[in-house]
Sequence to fold (809 residues):
Amino acid sequence: MIMAIAYFIPNGPKNLAILFPGIDFNNVDRYYLEVLDSVGAVVATTVINHIAGCDDDDYKYRIHFLNSAGAIDAINFKLLKQEHETKSEAYEKPLNYPLDRPAHGLGRTNVRSNDTFMLCNVDYTENDKEWLDELLDSPAAWIEWKGSQGQDDSYVPVIIVDKTFDKVTEADRFNYQVTIEIKLSHEKFTIRN
Amino acid sequence: MPIESFISQPAPNSIHAAYRPIIIRVAATKTDATPRPPVVYCDIYFNDTFYKTISKSQYTKLNPTNTEWQFDIQDAPQEFLRKFIAANGGYNIVEGTLIAVKVLCKLRSSGEDANGFIQTEGIAPVQGTSDIDPIPGTGTSTNEFFVVNAVLQHTDNQDLSAHLSSYKKRDWAESTWPLSHRPDMYKIGVSDSDYFPILHGGTSLSCLVLHYMNKGQNTYHSVTNCSLNACPIVTGIQYGEVDNGDGTQTFIFTFDPISVIVAALTIEYRLSGSSNLWTASIGTIISPRSITLPLGLYDFRFKTSGACTPQYSPDIIGIGITGAVCTPAGFIGTPSLPDAMEDNAYSYTIYLTGTAPFSLGGVIKPGWMSIVITGSQIDITGTPGSGDVGEDINVSFNILNCTNDSLAFADTIDVAEVVGCVPASFTDGLPSLPDATANVQYSFNINLSGTAPFSLASVVKPSWMVIAVVGSQIQITGTPTEANVGNNILVEFEIVNCGVTQFGFSDMIDVEPDSGDRHKMIVNYTGFPGPIALGEPCVVDVTIYRTAGATTDATAAGERIKLSFTATSDNFCITPGFVIFEPTDTEKTTSVDLTCGSGMTCTSVQVDLTTAEVIP
Fold:
């Protein structure tokens, strides 16, 4: 072995549509890829990808997360609720004489806000719970970001909020629901003066 | 040997998780061979570059002849390795930098100098800074192995290779592993971006085979794409030009090292500002590369290709040394190959215009013929043999100069047999060359009989004269000037055919001065009816001719000429008269009355030109 190198094999329909323009992924149910080396031997085979699950762009959040092997996996979630939380500090300043009527007395400073997304997934089963742990325990995660204002599609970093997750319960075993909360990794901040 | 042996170390080329112990245990002695060195150093190298040193001053175990020292180096790769996410929606196989790293440690023992200071064994490495590259040191190397930015849980197989191998589904190479625990039936949306991460230790990845099952079916179809990987673009291109002094220049390019994925580096170029097709120079990926081209400004671009999608560097516009502007080749005159004759030396020269150097391409010629370029002339020589006799033998070639400019020449020649050749002779008897007049076109042809081709030898002639053989005719042409005026100018040549000189020809001509009056008419008169009978009135008809040259001049100008003359009779009577020549007229007749007095008679008359003038 000359060098062990990590490679990311394009695997999503968005990636593969460019490589295989003849395939209409709207008609595809499942697929997998084989990677060939320069002599045509199969060196790697992906898992079977199943085109299924939440695919409503308005409510879908695809979370790419750092897995335990140092690479990236992704899971689609459906948005249950999005909260906007604002935090600020207050200050008080003396009034002028003569009175400047529009001037603030009590003020708001250091305003920061962030969004919390409550997300849910029902695509996987108890069999996959060890792998789902990697998501819940992941130190780094991203949601997909559709390019706007002339920018390319990219990712936005998010934080997975600590929580207790019912991994296995006796009840509802046939409806395996994974619920997580994420926060954006960059807070919004505002003008000071 | 202060580092005596490795008691424990990773196996060669093994893979390890960064978040589990990576143990290196050695038996060491002090540099003076006593069992207990004061310090043992473990210099960690990532991808062959020194990263940091771990040192210990406390041994793990004391043996009778040495001490054992144990290092867990996991902190170093944990610091060094990074997370990586490939671009959203990308379609190339992307290398996940810093997810895995090649590791080796060099171990050094130590001793003490005479003052009791600790003295390390060998040379200590130096860490790099923003300006200075790291400097490697010496020491006893461990095996090379790989560390992956991965974590193994307590219940996982602690051998990362075995752990990851248990997640391989379907076909896998032995030294390739998935860097994911994702399950089969991994859910994905039809517009989602995703990558499947692998750790690969073999040859380059060339193709993707997509196996897909359509909705409502239960069989897989396959398609393959083998051009998924974009080749790297050449970076760090620098160049210089050298004028070779022979109309050419050599470009020397240096560039950053190129990945071995690239099989060939093609440097493409064309004249700057032109829309020519790019000319390719294919070669190795090793810097530097050089190209020699004629002087001028060129555009360049670098193309990488191999088991990847070819990529171009940005164009490098308009570099080079400008010499004289290169003029494409052209012919002086219209070269036409004369025919050849068996066993006779053949020689013909084509003269070229344009910027040297010239070269020949696409040459088609008979075997006996030699075509050589010397400077700006092409010498075509040779002697055909008896086996070369034939007709319509093709001779063609392209004359190349500048860049990609070529001038085509094509002609056919006949090679005549010597047997049956009829010697040359004058068709119309011995010719006599007419005299010439300054500033008047001279033209005279001599027809030859016999077997062509004819040629001339030992030609003596004035410089203004051109003597050429065209087919079976010797054409003598030229226009002398006033400077060429003279008498008894020798024109002499020998006529050659059938491979031998047949006979010589020699004559002299005069070049008459041009009077400078373009309208001068030379008048001859005839038509004087003879002696006039005594007692008859002295009235005569005079016919006046214009010379051929004068007619040409007058006609060319479309001018009417008034010719004045005097007629003188032998009775001393002088009578003036004139005639008017229209442009197309060549002769005029007029009647002159020379009877100057009553009863005067004459028996002869003389007519003299007085003036010739252009009239409206």
